[in-house]
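Pipeline run #58 for the internal structure catalog. This entry was flagged by the ingest filter as a single-chain record with no existing model, so it goes straight to prediction. Upstream metadata was stripped on purpose; only the residue string is passed forward. Reviewer on rotation: M.T. Logging verbosity set to normal.
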Amino acid sequence: MASKLIFVTGGVLSSIGKGITASSIGTLLESRGFKVTIQKLDPYLNVDAGTMNPYQHGEVYVTDDGAETDLDLGHYERFTKATMKRINNITSGQIYQEIIQKERRGEFLGGTVQVIPHVTNLIKEKIKQLMSTDVDVVIVEVGGTVGDIEGLPFLEAIRQLGAEVGKRNAIYIHVTYVPYVKAAGELKTKPTQHSVKELRAIGIQPDIIVCRAERSIPQSVKRKIALFANLKEHEVITAKDLSTIYEVPLVLQKERIDELIIEKLQLPASQKSNLDDWKDIVQKMKKPSKGTVKIAVVGKYVELPDAYKSIIESFVHAGAANDVKVEIKWVNAEELDQKEPEEFLSDVSGVLVPGGFGERGVEGKIKAIKFARENKIPFLGICLGMQCAVIEFARNVAGLKDAHSSEFSSTTPYPVIDLMEEQKKVKEKGGTMRLGAYPCVLKDGTLSYEAYKENEISERHRHRYEFNNKFREVLEKAGLVIAGTSPDGRLVEIVEIKDHPWFVAVQFHPEFKSRPRNPHPLFKSFVKAAKELEEQFGS
């Protein structure tokens, strides 16, 4: 069977939940025995998300094959069994770059290069690449909002592709917003009507409308939307706000969206949906039996939690696995630069220092790590968090007083973190770091080995600077434990310290591999240690 297509578009406003809708549809189709993959089409002109400020775009999600992508790909992987690759995130920047390179090489034989057919053909090619893989359904999410000028080539491409493959092989799902106007005391359908009108003007008739709303949508409102959108009432689906995103597949299942999709695409549904394990996980997320544990995240983008989206979700997964709710206390690393850590960290049972770029907030992160180390508070350092942990240990335990990273100080006598040799000649910023999955060998008897219970693991990276091996011996003598290295032993991947209940710092990003059904071992172990500390002190 050739892959079927589901196109997901959004209307009225951005951040409406297209990514969660697409992911949840993936969950439901997998539960019916189908193999799915999901692709994000992003209209922005950046080639990828790698050089974008987290304040503008949230976190940069990294795939196994080293692509720096939109954070929605994280949702796709968390909600489904599919592994995302570079081809799963296509941007306008990639499309135009490829077309201009072809034009410069003379591949268009002197012809005029135009949006239609050249841009739209290339977009269709990228979708067809996924259709040619071993999957039953390709779900394609178009970023942005219908009506955005930059999204038009993508919408035209999916219109053309839908017409090419035929009605039984492609459907369009439009996610829209139905606002509740308090003064009038009613839900308003006009924004949805206008959004559908805009979509139909482009030549796309939605097959299903998913209505995002603060509250349940009554039948009378569904009827009105169906009338204006040229749909049947049961093709208008309610997706109201929920306490956890992981409940969305269960709500959409109640609305029978999976049955609608199977019917419209004429998919051979050989099994009934079974989401019992998913329901159990959601139940633990909503009502854990062992209370709450408070963990500080000391970062510099804390005003926008989306910058740490995968970390937040990893805590949700690890919390459910430990039957507790993780309450995140956001601590601005820059504030810590000026103040004492007790002010921020005396009421927490765990400290996590995440990745980041640039010098801003580094000294605050180092202070937080020192506090966690000295006060025996469970600590997890990720990427820059690991590098800061090495700097802190070098300065305050190993006696290398002015130790630093050469990223932040060119004059430090002890550059315990330094630029990788192969990075020294790199001039371009985009896509040039150590990116994607790399193997790591764990040392027996360490906390990391205890967490993973495996000798060799694979984790995703996104960094330029590394542990400087010139200082390996002196730091190990002072008590730093090298708990994980690259298979050749050359690159230090994990450090721990002795005589501490739980102190682990990793060069990679474990948060990218955590799933609700399979929480990341380090997060699971970290949350468990934090809960144990809390119980010990009865805080």
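catalog note: The longest strand covers residues 434-442.
catalog note: The chain has a mean pLDDT of 94.
status: ready for reviewer M.T.
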